[in-house]
Amino acid sequence: MLKVKRAKWPEIIWSSCPESKLKDAPRILGLNPWIYDFAAFNLWSRPAGLLWTLGLLRQAGAKVALLDCLDKTWEDYPWPQAQKWGQGHYPKKKVPKPVFLSTVPRNFSRYGLDYKAVKVALQKISPPPDMVLISSIMTYWYPGVITLLHLVKEIWPRIPVVLGGIYATLCTEHAQKTGADLVVKGRVEELKNWQALWKLLGISPPALPGVEDLLLPWDLYPEAQFSVLLGSRGCPFDCDYCASNKLYSGFWQRSFEVILKEFSLEYEKGVRNFAFYDDALLVNPEHWLFPFLNYIIEKKLEVNLHTPNALHLRYLDLPTCEKLFQAGLKTVRLGLESANFSSRLDRKLSLEHWERGVRNLLQAGFKKEWIKAYVLFGLPGQEEGEVKEAIRFVKKWGITPELAYFSPIPGTKIFTLARQCSPFPLAEEPLFQNNSLWPCVPGGFSWEKAGELKALIKS
Ligand code: B12
Ligand code: SF4
Fold this sequence. Notes:
Elements: E1 27-32, E2 35-37, H1 48-59, E3 63-68, E4 92-94, E5 109-111, H2 115-123, E6 131-134, H3 142-155, E7 161-163, H4 166-170, H5 172-175, E8 182-183, H6 191-201, E9 227-229, E10 232-234, H7 244-247, E11 251-253, H8 256-269, E12 273-276, H9 289-298, E13 304-306, H10 318-327, E14 329-337, H11 351-364, E15 371-377, H12 384-396, E16 400-405, H13 415-421, H14 447-458
Parallel strand pairs: 1-3, 1-6, 6-7, 7-8, 9-12, 12-13, 13-14, 14-15, 15-16
Antiparallel strand pairs: 2-5, 4-5, 10-11
Residues 40, 43, 45-50, 52-53, 133-135, 137-140, 162, 164-166, 169, 184, 187-189, 230, 242-244, 247, 277, 279, 308-309, 404-405, 407, 409, 433, 435 line the site of cobalamin.
């Protein structure tokens, strides 16, 4: 087993591609900000988009380093003990609520590494990086982006800072007001984005490495409790509440060989927990998923696989369920959303799909307690009865419902209706897109209602 240790605080490790032909390779630092929210739990969370970006830049010849505020990072840094399968709590510090959220009856915290620990680690980087990249995930987590951006600008006022990711793509105008030198909307591998990055560095852009062969640089996390597998981008469905199509139109799959290489490097490091990040993991499974599952089964590798991002029930035929079971899928999440099968906001599921999928999972050997079905709560105009009906429906099957609170996302089909229903200016202020606020539920978040639904789930 290839064991690589974490550095000691406050050291940041740089890495480059051995075949780099770039003279005076620029040093590019990637930062994943803290989460600022009412609640946060690490469900195998990694900034996959930032890793993708750093991977391409390293491949093109740059020297890269990563500081992820949501990762333990340093060998001697205190961090909550991870749970059985690598998921777990973040350290948290209560912080004042942003003014827009001052009336919400919940505590607001910064999750992740201590602010001062990050500040000192950045100050110690010598010489300073030539460019800093800041990633963004949930739109309403932008306070973490701004805090980090201000910190970077305080330490290195003249170093260019680039902001990219999901918030930057879905709320570009808002992101342009953060003070970043460049806001990248969409995929970094789009030629105009790639060129803009290098222009900011003052270097003529090297050829864009092929994304087909790209290995995500998971080695930037030396001692990981878990890792992520991303075998595809996009989703062939187009549900009214989902931003998948806005983030990647079309559907593209990586090759089995590339996934296997990425997985093997992580496995060699000792990683045994892998979470799939695909929006449509089970679409066209012959391309890479089946060969990958077969490989694990044939080699008798002991791994735990997790699908926090939900599986499409329509593709759960018996052979697929058996392969998933034998390969070690432990966390099974299903996208039910609603038990109303006649009028739905998605195009992905019928009652027959549900019945057949759940039966096949059970027949393949999955225990009922490993399976949870997401039920969407808080959609514009949604009747509370519909949510309760869905909870009861799932429970009838002996599996556990899990509420997925609705986040209104700019650019989705339902966003216009969400804006009409919500008392908050959803388009102008991304903080109101936070699912914890229940932004489209009359009266907003209520502890009483949350308790009532929790009790129904537990009953
Ligand atoms: C994996 C995933 C998760 C994981 C964890 C994600 C994480 N890292 O923390 C899990 C399953 C836990 C999760 C949970 C949730 N998620 Co989620 N998730 C995703 C998903 C499917 C993939 C994100 C991803 O990594 N993509 C792969 C990378 C490679 O793509 P990318 O980030 O777009 O990166 C590209 C560009 O953006 C750019 N880029 C990215 N970063 C950078 C940085 C720089 C500097 C540059 C230059 C470029 C750049 O280049 C990259 C390569 O092309 C997205 C949907 C999607 N298709 O993106 C939803 C999504 C982000 N999730 C969403 C939601 C709603 C949730 C939940 C709230 C669901 C719920 N209702 O309970 C929870 C909340 C999580 C929490 N902790 O509180 C929404 C976002 C909502 C919002 N307002 O922002 C999305 C968009 C799905 C949707 N419904 O439309 N999620
Ligand atoms: S099936 Fe899932 S990922 Fe695909 S569009 Fe619908 S909600 Fe989004």
